[in-house]
Input
Amino acid sequence: MSEIERFLKARDFLLANRGDYETAYRDFRWPELDRFNWALDYFDSMARGNDKPALLIVEEDGSRQELSFRQLSERSNQVANYLRQLGVRRGDCILLMMGNEAPLWELMLAAIKLGAVISPATTLLTSDDLADRIRRGNVKVVVTRNVEKFAAIPHAFTGITLGKPVADWHGYEDSLRTGTSFVPEGETHAEDPLFLYFTSGTTAQPKLVLHTHQSYPVGHLSTMYWLGLQQGDIHWNISSPGWAKHAWSCFFAPWNAAATVFIYNYARFSAPDVLQALVRHGVSTLCAPPTVWRMLIQEKLADYPVKLREVIGAGEPLNPEIIEQIRNAWGITIRDGYGQTETTAQIGNAPGALLKPGSMGRPLPGYRVELLDADGRPAAEGEICLELRHRPLGLMRGYAGDEEKSAEVVREGYYHTGMSPAGMPMATSPMLAGRTMFSRHRITASAHSSWRVS
Output
């Protein structure tokens, strides 16, 4: 059986058992891969002759851009050829800093095809933040509209601008002049590096999370299952580019299911506009942070005949009142889950599962979860840890350039998340502050909890 056949077998098993958690969890096995390039082996084969919508971007003024799987396959080939002309080679790091626009998806597919390393960056970063990322990430190429933020940074990288022409920067539109066929230079090993994420947060200096060609593209089968995605769905994940959750639910998880990625761009959040977009564009699955849900319930939800089948909360614990109002208006229940930049979705309330208030859900297919006390022993209360005897495919390779931190979180047969089942930092990890122990009952089959994408 080839690598792509193994991937599809694992994918199809989860799709077939999306409503049967016990079977999905018990019988799922990560595909064993050696050489695998998700964009070339999976996406391009799915896209061949496929004119179904892969990406739909709608603006506030009503304008829209729709790209089919076939178009994105061909367009990403052009971008890959263009990057190669500019000297990009396998293993080179590309920093992408842009909004929700079609070039982001084109560039990510192109980088995967080339075997380049992608370093997503939010547009909120300062020039100092960017200088640090370029230095520590050994960035070779920068693609952005915000060229001014790089003006004071030594120009040791190749710059590509998405906006108006800028001296010493290449124009992204030039990629339209390249061929629509792409021939890779050699094979991609499944363990080759693919993503370099700079985590926010709890330490003085962001850590560099390194993911591979299998840990994110294939690892997000667990996320696809948790979201409850099906082929032909129109999936909207309200998330900004640059954060891991964007790659989770605006790229890999929906396209693993051959669903359409939907984006609605707005300058200022408007609950009525968002609700109208849900109705007008027939969105079937929605993932949004609690801040969005809190604003949506201020409207008369029953007046909006949505076609939603699955709704997901991500970011922090949801108030039970929010869950109840959504259920009363639309007859569906918001499901929650947990994951990190370092992993894919680990724990969650699966589609169709009985929800228990106060718990973040159950371990997702492919993840073996244990609560460990401060001495590293299984306990009724403790830190969320992942068993490594059956290493989850969605776990990062490690923290790039920092063996000490990598060894700190992977020790004695477990990956230590540093978090409790309530999403609170644990004192068992020197890298995290706080001390709160939470009980095993929070990992069962629940309605609300917290999510952390660091």
Notes: Residues 115 and 352 are 38 Å apart (CA to CA).
